[in-house]
């Protein structure tokens, strides 16, 4: 009896040590994100004013606002979405619902996984070669959006495919047994159920596109262009590249403006993240399986 | 039709009964070789409950799912023979499987309600078939729920999610969902295996009431249920049809030793 109690006490101690370790590991992952956000906002928020987000840069970007960069990032994100969302969702529906398991479709899947692993600067170089030079789109919103879209595709495809596969197969069988065609089944049962997962993937993909610097470096971003783009074949300033420029390329840049720009970019990206989180939690509450 | 007459000889059914489905020398094999059928011939009469019973893994579900080509979704590697419904071989590649499945409905072992409201579950099949008339959809909802003995319980909450229903109610909703399409044949694959005795009784009572309008093919979840419900009963063992006779006969005076052993609970 005495031995047994010490054994159980020892087990309890081991368990507590284990739990503490795991809890610590979880905590440590939270600390950096909190620090980054708090520090950036602390340093940057004094710079935030109406003039900063609605004005044009002055005095070699050392004063004034960052409106062209905000507008540029908005158009680039929108353009990326218009290209990558239908293409990515279409490809995912094909892969999850229609594609037979052959060497060919396996090769497609491997290609998608590898696409996700390519460094973003390589996408930039590829975009420069194909869209800017070969297709003669020039340094433009089209070229930048296409480049970002290719980079975003694997994220959208793989999250969408996963969301589609998570829909129980019994729903498909029932729908088909009730005289549904394959497409009717996908459109009326599978996609509505997978939609929250699809939207989450889309937002996460676009969010990454909004924050990337390397792919837009050679394809669209302007060092200094203090006006709004007038067509999709215009170059434009963009937030991530602007941040890079004012942090490294312009001497005598007030620190406040650097962190202020970071605050705007971070707010843009985090608010997209919040939308994704809200969609997901609402869907989880409504889910019926 | 020579072939369906041939098939009729395999069974001991009286000739004057109209056969809705005639299965002729049907063999089915799956790629993993698990469950399969060998040379099954069977004539299933109209307006009756025909029961397919036997030990698990014997091919009953395969036989059932071949009758509305739902087995097209499974990993079938070999398929031979014929399944005639009203004189048309539904295994013929030219058959329109979508309209076939509207004529031959199926209720599964697990009640799978679609993630929609009760009403939407019932109108789903009709809407897919192109029915747009509000009044006709409403009518189908009420009629099918009444036929499945569910109307009294859900008529005041048709727009609630179907998942909120109890297991027994869900299974009757699945039956109603099939009835709403006004099929000719209804296949039932152990429809009451997850239900309590009271719900089971309700489903069985519905079947008895409905059978004058439909052809039912039922895989029962027990020999007792087979004996209670069968107008005709086929004993299927290891992919083969062992004995096929009117229900009263097969459960009281089976001709084959294996049928007798199974009915009396000596194996299976």
Brief rundown of the structure:
The complex is a heterodimer of chains A (289) and B (268). Helix content of chain A is 76%, strand content 1%.
Kindly describe this structure.
The complex is a heterodimer of chains A (289) and B (268). With 289 residues, chain A is mainly α. Chain A has a domain at 65-255: MetI-like fold, CATH 1.10.3720.10. Helix content of chain A is 76%, strand content 1%. In chain A, α6 packs across α8 and α8 packs antiparallel against α11 (255-286). The two termini of chain A are 47 Å apart. With 268 residues, chain B is an alpha/beta fold. Chain B has one domain: 3-Layer(aba) Sandwich (Rossmann fold). Chain B has 11 helices and 10 strands. Chain B has helices spanning 2-10, 60-66, 97-103, 118-128, 134-147, 151-154, 167-179, 197-210, 223-229, 247-252, 257-263, and strands spanning 19-30, 37-45, 49-53, 76-85, 88-89, 104-107, 185-189, 215-219, 232-237, 240-246. A 6-stranded mixed beta sheet of chain B has the order 6-7-8-3-9-10, with helices on both faces. In chain B, β9 and β10 (240-246) form a beta hairpin. The longest helix of chain B has 14 residues, at 134-147. Chain B starts with a helix and ends in a 5-residue tail after the last helix. The A-B interface holds A 168, 170-171, 173-181, 184, 188-189, 192-193, 287-289 and B 68, 70, 73, 98-99, 101-102, 105-106, 108, 110, 112, 114-115, 124-125, 128-129, 161, 163, 177-178, 181.
């Amino acid at each position: 009896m005495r031995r047994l109690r010490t054994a159980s006490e020892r087990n309890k101690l081991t368990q507590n040590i284990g739990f503490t370790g795991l809890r610590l590991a979880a905590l440590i992952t939270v600390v950096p994100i909190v620090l980054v956000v708090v520090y950036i906002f602390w340093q940057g928020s004094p710079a935030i004013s109406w003039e900063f987000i609605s004005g044009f840069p002055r005095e070699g970007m050392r004063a004034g606002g960052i409106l062209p960069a905000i507008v540029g990032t908005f158009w680039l994100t929108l353009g990326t979405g218009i290209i990558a969302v239908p293409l990515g969702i279409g490809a995912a529906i094909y892969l999850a619902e229609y594609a037979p398991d052959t060497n060919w479709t396996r090769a497609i899947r491997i290609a998608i996984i590898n696409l996700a692993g390519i460094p973003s600067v390589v996408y930039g170089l590829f975009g420069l070669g194909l869209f800017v030079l070969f297709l003669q789109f020039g340094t433009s919103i089209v070229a930048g959006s296409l480049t970002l879209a290719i980079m975003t595709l694997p994220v959208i495809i793989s999250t969408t495919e996963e969301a589609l596969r998570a829909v129980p197969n019994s729903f498909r069988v029932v729908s088909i047994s009730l005289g549904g065609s394959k497409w009717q089944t996908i459109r009326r049962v599978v996609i509505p159920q997978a939609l929250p997962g699809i939207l989450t993937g889309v937002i996460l993909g676009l969010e990454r596109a909004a924050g990337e610097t390397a792919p837009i470096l050679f394809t669209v971003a302007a060092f200094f262009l203090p006006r709004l783009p007038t067509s999709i074949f215009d170059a434009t300033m963009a937030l991530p590249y602007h941040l890079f420029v004012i942090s490294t390329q312009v001497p005598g840049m007030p620190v406040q403006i650097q962190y202020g720009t970071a605050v705007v970019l971070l707010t843009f990206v985090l608010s997209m993240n919040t939308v994704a989180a809200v969609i997901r939690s609402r869907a989880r509450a409504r889910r019926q399986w | 039709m020579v072939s369906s007459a041939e098939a009729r000889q395999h069974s001991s059914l009286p000739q004057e009964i109209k056969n809705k489905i005639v299965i002729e020398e049907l063999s089915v094999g799956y790629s993993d070789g698990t469950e399969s059928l060998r040379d099954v011939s069977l004539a299933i009469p109209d307006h009756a409950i025909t029961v397919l019973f036997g030990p698990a893994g014997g091919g009953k579900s395969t036989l059932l799912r071949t009758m509305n080509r739902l087995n097209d979704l499974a990993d079938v590697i070999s398929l031979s023979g014929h399944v005639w419904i009203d004189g048309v071989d539904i295994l013929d590649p030219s058959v329109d499987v979508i309209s076939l499945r509207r004529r031959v409905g199926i209720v599964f072992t697990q009640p799978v309600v679609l993630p929609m409201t009760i009403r939407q579950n019932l109108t789903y099949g009709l809407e897919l078939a192109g029915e747009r008339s509000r009044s006709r959809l409403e009518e189908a909802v009420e009629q099918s729920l009444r036929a499945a003995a569910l109307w009294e319980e859900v008529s005041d909450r048709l727009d609630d999610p179907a998942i909120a229903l109890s297991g027994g109610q869900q299974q009757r909703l699945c039956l109603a969902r099939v009835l709403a399409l006004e099929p000719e044949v209804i296949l039932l694959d152990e429809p009451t295996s997850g239900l309590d005795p009271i719900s089971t009784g309700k489903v069985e009572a519905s079947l008895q009431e409905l059978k004058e309008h439909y052809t039912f093919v039922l895989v029962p979840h027990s020999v007792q249920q087979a004996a209670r419900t069968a107008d005709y009963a086929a004993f299927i063992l290891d992919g083969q049809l062992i004995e096929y006779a009117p229900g009263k006969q097969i459960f009281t005076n089976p001709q084959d030793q294996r049928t007798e052993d199974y009915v009396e609970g000596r194996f299976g």
